[in-house]
Amino acid sequence: MSEINLLPEPKFVPELHPTFRPAVLVNRAFETAARDTGAAVEAGIGLEQADGSVFHTRTVLFPEGHALAGNNLRHLERLVKFLLWQRGGWKIHVSGADNLVPRLQEYYRMNVFGKFDDDVIGQKNFGHSLEVVACDELPAENIQTRAIGRNLDGCRIGFDLGGSDRKAAAVIDGEVKFSEEIVWDPYFQEDPEYHYAGIVDSLKRAAEHLPRVDAIGGSAAGCYSQNRVTWASLFRGVSQEDFEAKVRGMFLRIAEEWNVPLEVYNDGEVTALAGSMALGKNGVLGIAMGTSQGGGYIDMDGNLTTWLSELAFAPIDLHPEAPADEWSGDLGCGAQYFSQQAVGRLLPVSGIECDASLSLPEQLKIVQAAMDAGDERARKIYDAIGIYLGYSLAHYAEFYDFEYVLLLGRVTSGPGGEHIIARSKEVMAAEFPELSEYIKFHIPDEMEKRHGQAIAAASLPKIR
């Protein structure tokens, strides 16, 4: 078997992206080929978080000396890469592959993509550089979950901070009395006072519609721990010095100034909570196709895990020349497939003429207008995203236990979003029939989009 056979062509090939090689198919092909040797090496990965949580994943590798054993490191690294961003952790326990441990450790010290993972996931998120250790047996699995939100009593403010706009709502006993969306541009602002002033302005505007403020809950792009910012794309323009001095504790400062309970969580987690509350169901995987790709998960018991679900950086295309992420530079990661970035990437090859200097939201509007007009070129863009989604949901299903897929974000609006769902269903029915039988899609209506997230965010804190 040659190396190219480890990159099987899918049954559904996006016309605008013919080299797409879904991670789910590549991983299955690799493991099948390894087992077919009759001497496959059983390998385990135990990802440990700072709180002692440990998550297990199993795979197989080619035996040493086999002609395809040179593929083992890439298979292991891509799998760990996905786990780092999907689950999170700093200590990577590896069993059954002692010879690969020093090479994987070197990857996080020397490779530019590995160093990004080490910096963001390891150091910024968990306070440790990524450490890879060999073991005979993985440490015992330790999975922790917790209830989140669903508190609707009193007068509350809910806010949501995205890459292109910020939202805030006034909520009384679970009913939205006021909501507002304000355009902002936080990504490359160097002064953190820009972010602070914008957030406080939105809170004050919402507070004007309440007799009092009992609690504040918020969702925001990035990772947060006990209301501290561990890292977030919203603050990527801020220097490390200013981040430590003015950003990390920004929400603690706001809570103290307003003297009310305040909770802030990753926007994907709150999106999934909003879906769970609206549906009255659990086992919800939220995917937001906006400025980037957001992700969130509520488990089958209605609880939040300690997983990161930062799926924008999790690889779903394993072709060695897959599109590069605009921030980390790594290849085949979710943001290039499920966001306005995906639309912007596919637009030039679709044949639709567009000024390349236009912003991604403006480019999306052009594609949406073309789709509304029945333009076949626009349909091909949504066709590609639908194919990506069908294969990626099968990949996600190997790491999450879910029944409902909540789709949000401007990319999913209108007939384009409908085509994405229809195409992804086709893919799953043909390639993964067992999944297509029970996975259900949910796209919230405009009222739920505007108010569901606000209610869920506002419900996060308990009133003292």
Describe the protein's topology.
Elements lengths: L22 H13 L5 E8 L5 E8 L10 H15 L4 E5 L5 H10 L1 H15 L4 E5 L9 E2 L8 E7 L3 E8 L2 E9 L8 H16 L7 E6 L2 E3 L2 E4 L8 H8 L2 H9 L3 E5 H13 L4 E6 L3 E6 L5 E2 L34 H11 L9 H13 L3 H21 L7 E5 L5 H18 L1 H4 L3 E3 L3 H13 L6
Helix pairs in contact: 3-4, 8-14, 9-10, 9-11, 10-11, 11-12
The gross shape turns out to be globular
Uncertain parts: none
Per CATH, the superfamily of the largest domain is: ATPase, nucleotide binding domain
Determine the strand fraction and express it as a percent band: 15-25%
Helix content: 25-40%
CATH-defined architecture of the largest domain = 2-Layer Sandwich
Whole-Å distance between the termini? 64 Å
Query: How do the strands line up in the largest sheet?
Result: 8-7-6-9-12
Q: Output the CATH topology of the largest domain.
A: Nucleotidyltransferase, domain 5
* Tally of individual domains: 2
Outline the biggest β-sheet: 5 strands, mixed
Oligomer: single chain
How many β strands by DSSP? 17
